[in-house]
Specification:
single chain; 479 residues; alpha+beta; Acetylcholine Binding Protein, Chain: A; Methane Monooxygenase Hydroxylase, Chain G, domain 1; four-stranded antiparallel β-sheet; 19 strands; 27% helix; rod-shaped; signal
């Protein structure tokens, strides 16, 4: 009785060509014919109801730069889903209607639509003001197309080990919410599944490639991803491969840091006893570089692994710190009182004597000791004492030309062996012409050792920094 009453109340579809879109849609979606809570039926080859095939397409017209500190990015996109609902076919009842029925959110609310969500979203909204940007169309053959403009903030799990030379893969993942693989299958459109707007441009990244993927997500009872319903769920994703632009970091970080390291080497041209300028230059360079590096690192998340930018920071800090240590080393040597003798004037022997200084070796006969003078007079001076002391004579050598300067030569003569040529000592400090004793050892004053180390540092530090750069940039671009 009730069934007959319902059939009598079911509106007819006769004369559908003369109905308006709203009237035709009202009759098509009447409860006697259509249940929006029930998915469309699709007969399979064996006669059973197969899953509904939903084809998806995306049009990306805005993409915000990746925010590394929050591991996220933002997109504005048009998502379009296409499927066939046999209950909405009106080609036979309205043969003269060739255009689809089109509407907005009100039309969408009358239909069954697949519930698809963004699996890696942080937040999302449907764009539009009073009327949301939702477009729905129903073709005469029952094909339904639902288009939605959305704004979404999505997580992107970034690997920053090679920052700022990193490349990132950021995905947008779509999954079926309530229908598992037996009821609904998500597929990408065969032609142009994902399209980027021609005017789309990223300031910090360059798009290398983009690819799509279709997969299946397995959910068990312990997984609330799909409302604690176990099963296999269809999933779609499209991934963009982005590479970070290097111009900003080269101009604002790497080139200034190289200049700061080079400035720290100026101390090698200052005399070792000039403590104030060398300390001021070294500490100010160190503080400036740390400030530069900390400002750059504030935009990054706190990760446990070391990044390429941190390797650069540690390397440059080591070179600046090394110049400060070198000054402390040569300044300590400069203030020593005793001369040292080295077997050969090379790095191995000079540094060994500088680190572990020993007094000047005694002559093979053991009859006299080597004496040195650590200060110079501006004119010829003769110092006399008792017979156990040395005579000091400073000879001024006239300059050959105004542009060339020859420093005074210090000659010391032992009183007891004044007539022995082997005991004469001649030292030219700035030219570093040291005396070679009869026993084959070379006597150097502390000042000569300090100057010798400074001169070698002028070449050792830049060469070491160039080698560091070769290894660093090779690692960045080829490893």
């Amino acid at each position: 009785m009730e069934l007959c009453k319902r059939d009598s109340e079911c509106p007819t579809l006769e004369g559908a060509d003369h109905l308006s879109q709203t009237q035709l849609l009202t009759r098509l979606t009447h409860v006697c014919r259509y249940d929006r809570l029930e998915r469309p039926k699709r007969e399979s080859i064996n006669g059973t109801n197969g899953p509904v095939k939903v084809y998806a397409r995306a049009y990306i017209y805005f993409m915000q730069n990746l925010e590394a500190h929050d591991l996220q990015f933002k997109i504005h996109a048009l998502l379009q889903f296409r499927y066939v609902d046999p209950r909405l076919v009106f080609r036979e009842v309205a043969p003269n209607r060739t255009k689809p029925i089109m509407g907005e959110q009100s039309l969408r609310d009358l239909l069954w639509v697949p519930h698809v969500f963004l699996a890696n979203e942080r937040s999302s909204d449907i764009l539009g003001t009073a009327e949301k940007d939702i477009l729905t169309s129903i073709s005469p053959d029952g094909t339904v197309i639902v288009s939605t403009r959305i704004s979404a903030t999505l997580y992107c799990w970034m690997n920053l080990q090679k920052f700022p030379f990193d490349e990132q893969h950021c995905s947008t993942v779509l999954e079926s919410w309530m229908y598992n693989l037996d009821d609904l299958v998500l597929l990408w459109e065969h032609k142009s599944p994902v399209t980027l707007a021609p005017e789309l441009h990223l300031t910090e990244y360059v798009l290398l490639e983009m690819f799509t993927n279709e997969t299946v997500i397995n959910a068990d009872l312990s997984d609330l991803r799909h409302g604690a319903f176990a099963g296999n769920y269809s999933s779609l994703s499209f991934t963009v491969h982005l590479a970070r632009e290097m111009g900003f970091y080269m101009m604002d970080y790497f080139i200034p840091s190289i200049m700061l390291v080079a400035i720290s080497w100026v101390t090698f041209w200052l005399q070792a006893d000039q403590s104030a300028p060398r300390i001021t230059l070294g500490t100010s360079t160190m503080l400036t570089f740390i400030t530069l590096a900390s400002a750059q690192g504030k935009t990054l998340p706190k990760v446990s692994y070391i990044k390429a930018s941190e390797i650069w920071f540690l390397g440059c800090t080591g070179f600046i710190f090394g110049s400060l240590v070198e000054f402390a080393f040569v300044n300590t040597i400069w203030r020593r009182k005793r001369n040292v003798e080295v077997k050969k004037v090379n790095s191995k022997h000079v540094l060994k004597q500088a680190i572990t200084p020993r007094p000047a070796r005694k002559d093979m006969s053991g009859l006299h000791k080597s004496h040195s003078c650590t200060s110079l007079a501006d004119s010829a001076t003769t110092v006399s004492a008792n017979s156990f002391n040395n005579y000091l004579t400073v000879h001024s050598i006239p300059q050959k030309s105004p542009s060339s300067a020859t420093l005074p030569i210090i000659a010391t003569t032992d009183v007891d062996r004044a007539m022995a040529d082997a005991s004469n000592v001649t030292i030219q400090i700035e030219g570093q012409t040291s005396n070679v004793n009869g026993n084959g050892w070379t006597t150097m004053t502390p000042q000569e050792v300090a100057i010798w180390i400074d001169k070698r540092s002028r070449f050792v530090f830049p060469i070491a920094f160039v080698i560091f750069n070769i290894f660093y940039w090779t690692f960045v671009y080829y490893v």
